[in-house]
Design brief:
Length: about 800
């Protein structure tokens, strides 16, 4: 095997002879023990091999650390991967990777479980904010840059989820049926680029199956393709709880089972080796791969680690710039950029204005030290002399925000937070402890004698009226408020997937009427005990008294009418776009569409900002004077949005197609049938499958604050050069895109792209390299390059291609 490292991915030189010596010093039991996690996030140390424990961590929007839930430490929250892909810039991806790698080193991590390089097969995919794009080439280029950036810090990047994990419905078990040509031309290229070009040190095997074989047992894809054809010399780790067999996974090419210390290997794998069912060399190969990973990430004695890069002092500014470069200006009738000197009153309206969504939901969640809100961002750029009126407009959210930290105290200790008591059947306390406020508390270990959880808090209510209090978790819940009748609700989990409980905990909202002042509440939960795991979670949410949608719509329209400009923020949240759930509709929740229309009718100077990680329908898209798509922009998102509204160049281009209506979406069903998900559309996904009238905003679309003229294009030596001119009065950035016209009755496909910048009146030439593989097709078990010349269409998006040229 050729243990190469691509250029640009520095790591300590790996001495294979030294690794073999360390392997020889280990017993079979030590070897097998190393191949299953010591716990949920670490691999065990092996003293005889000089191996320290290695720590793994999610994820795609920044390293979270080795915890999940209420005790998660603050970290850096990056813009969502869809935002990063919207930069259409491999160097921006590399910069994000470098910063994540530096933060991971600061947190003592060895492996970052990112990037997610599955594709946007259907816009309903619940985890698409965590993926890059609907196009394999764009995804591959962003992934390669990101992997190179992470690993330059001496931290392993993990290309996941290999492969066909492009939706969340029945994700643990569905079988993706994908023909070989589609696999090779669409779904494998991002992984191949991450491995063969960027040199990823880890690949994660997905939960699902492909063509009848679960991915952790899929020898053809793991052993033959990944490790054989692509010469991958790193570690294949299972997705958490994805490994469900002993011999099959061991022989297929899986190297590490996570989490631990349980799982299907351990003593069972030792026995399989001793009985001859699994050759000893198979285990040795896995151990060598883990040792190689340890050498690369600084976990082997005697091998110096890559010098840890410092997290730069201006990291928050860099995150803000990444969010600006990924935001996409979809429409602009001249309202943007706003001119501060013309503003005295601004109306900031919408559910996402008051409940800003910096990230999506699921295992990628990162707790940021501070998330800059849109109000904070606008106040910074507008100053204190401009009056900013804030109205939510409507209330579309299904779940309440976590109980505010300044609202609740432990009634026993008086400290900010709540009291958690675990009680036995006779009411006696098994344990009692103070808990600080968190989105939820996990894990709460349920000893056999525990029959009831009690959460107690003394709340300081700041207003009189109807208060809303929500409780997270499964079981039978009771809310007790002094002087009021107890309220009850039961919510149970179907199935035994602990990830469903952790990632999408059920929530129920109680209401109670109270005057402003102090009130002590108690939430009692009889936990669901017919589950295979003796843990649960709990959480409390709260919302103060408020009006209804009708009241708020009226107030929002009045605020807009009285303002010089109205900024409407609509979108989704981490409960709507999340791991473990696909969306059921592309329509914005609640009455958000009505809100946009009423505000636009009240004030023609309205800009709409959509705060979401993946496409939603915008039947009102032609009504506002300007329309900006901010994605989930991370912790500095409020500042980034304000920067753009007041003049910073919005750099983004769409990495996925935005449809006119649901009927226009080529693939609008992510539900397996009898456990099988048929990819019958082949390679026709995304922009290559939409009919012309069904596209609201095309793949690659994005406006600038200047104008661009496409002058001419020439092709030579496997590249095309496109000259464009900045026709405006300010500097700008343009992404020049090349699409291959196949001439075989198939729609054009992306063949390359390049981002360029130019000042007012300046011309600039973009050079787009077009790889032979991009032109090639998979036929009869091999890549073939069709005879040229190859006709390229060049322009600003998949539907705006004014220039052509031919490439030999």
């Amino acid at each position: 095997m050729n243990h190469h490292r691509p250029e640009g991915t520095p790591a300590p030189a790996v001495d294979e002879t030294d690794l073999s010596r360390r392997l020889a010093a280990m017993t079979l039991k030590e070897k097998v023990c190393l191949l299953t996690g010591a716990d949920a996030w670490t691999l065990p140390p092996v003293e005889t091999a000089g191996l320290a424990a290695m720590m793994l961590s999610d994820g795609p929007v920044g390293p979270r650390g080795a915890s999940f839930g209420g005790n998660t430490p603050a970290s850096l929250l990056f813009p969502s991967p869809t935002s990063l892909a919207a930069t259409w810039d491999e160097e921006d991806a590399r910069e994000a990777g470098r910063l994540m790698g530096a933060q991971a080193r600061r947190m003592g991590l060895h492996v970052l479980l990112a990037p997610t390089v599955n594709l946007h097969r259907s816009p309903l995919g619940g985890r698409h904010f965590e993926c890059y794009s609907e196009d394999p080439l764009l995804t591959a280029r962003i992934a390669a840059g990101f992997v190179g950036g992470v690993q330059s810090a001496g931290v392993a990047a993990t290309a996941k989820h290999f492969v066909g994990n492009d939706s969340e419905t029945e994700r643990m078990t569905f079988d993706a049926r994908i023909d070989e040509a589609t696999l090779r031309q669409v779904y494998l290229p991002p992984f191949e680029a991450a491995v063969r070009e960027a040199g990823a040190w880890v690949v994660m095997a997905a939960y699902n199956g492909v063509n009848g074989q679960s991915m952790t047992e899929n020898r053809r894809l793991l052993a033959d393709v990944l490790k054989g054809e692509w010469d991958f010399d790193g570690v294949v780790v299972s997705d958490w709880m994805a490994a469900r067999s002993t011999e099959e996974t061991a022989l297929a090419g899986l190297d590490v089972v996570m989490p631990g210390p349980g799982g299907p290997w351990g003593d069972a794998l030792v026995a399989a080796v001793e009985d001859g069912r699994v050759p000893a060399r198979v285990v040795d190969d896995k151990v060598l791969r883990v040792l190689r990973l340890a050498a690369r990430t600084g976990a082997l004695d005697g091998i110096p680690a890559t010098p840890a890069p410092a997290v730069p002092d201006d990291v928050r500014m860099r995150l803000r710039q990444l969010a600006v470069r990924g935001s996409v200006l979809l429409r602009n009738d001249g309202l943007l950029p706003l001119r501060p000197r013309e503003l005295t009153r601004v109306a900031l309206i919408g559910p996402n204005a008051v409940r800003f969504a910096a990230q999506g939901g699921g295992s990628a969640h990162v707790t940021a030290e501070h998330v800059v809100t849109p109000l904070e961002g606008l106040r910074r750029v507008l100053g204190d002399d401009v009056e900013i009126t804030v109205r939510p407009g409507v209330f579309p959210h299904a779940k309440l925000l976590p109980l505010p930290a300044d609202l609740a105290v432990d009634p026993v200790t008086g400290e900010p937070g709540v009291r958690l008591e675990l009680r036995a059947a006779d009411g006696a306390a098994v344990s009692a402890e103070h808990r600080q406020i968190a989105p939820w508390w996990f894990p709460i270990v349920l000893a056999e004698e525990v029959t009831e959880l009690a959460l107690r808090a003394r709340l300081t209510l700041t207003a009189s009226g109807t208060h809303r209090l929500s409780v997270l978790g499964t079981g039978r819940h009771t809310l007790r408020v002094p002087g009021r009748q107890d309220q009850h609700h039961e919510q149970l989990q179907d199935g035994d997937d602990i990830a469903a409980l952790l990632l999408n905990p059920p929530s129920h909202t109680f209401t109670f009427t109270a005057e402003a002042g102090e009130v002590e509440i108690e939430v009692l939960t009889t936990p669901q005990r017919n589950l295979p795991y003796p843990v649960t979670l709990a959480g409390l949410g709260y919302e103060p008294p408020r009006g209804d949608d009708d009241d708020e719509l009226t107030a929002a329209a009045e605020a807009a009418r009285d303002a010089d400009v109205a900024i409407v923020m609509v979108g989704s949240d981490a409960d709507t776009e999340t791991e473990n759930l696909d969306r059921t509709t592309l329509a914005l929740h609640g009455r958000q569409d009505e809100l946009v229309r009423r505000v636009c009718a009240a004030n023609p100077r309205t800009v709409v900002v959509v705060n979401a990680g993946a496409p939603w329908l915008m039947p009102w898209a032609a009504e506002p004077a300007a329309l900006l798509w901010s994605w989930f922009p991370g912790q500095e998102g409020g500042d980034a949005i304000a920067d753009i509204l007041l003049g910073s160049e919005p750099g983004g281009r769409l990495p996925t197609t935005f449809p006119v209506a649901e009927k226009d979406v080529p693939i609008l069903d992510t539900r397996p049938v009898n456990g099988v998900l048929e990819y019958t559309e082949g390679e026709h996904i995304g922009y290559r499958a939409y009919r012309p009238g069904g596209v609201l905003f095309p793949f690659g679309h994005g406006l600038s604050y200047t104008t661009w003229e496409y002058l001419h294009a020439t092709a030579s030596d496997g590249a095309v050069e496109v000259t464009i001119r900045n026709g405006g009065d300010r500097p700008g950035r343009e992404v020049v895109q090349a699409y291959l016209e196949t001439g075989q009755g198939e729609p054009p496909r992306l063949a390359g792209f390049a981002a360029v910048e130019a000042g007012p009146g300046q011309s600039v030439t973009a050079r787009i390299e077009v790889a032979a593989r991009t032109l090639s097709r998979w036929n009869d078990g091999r890549w073939t390059l069709p005879a040229g010349p190859h006709r390229l269409l060049l322009g600003r998006s998949a539907t705006d291609l004014p220039l052509t040229c031919t490439l030999d």
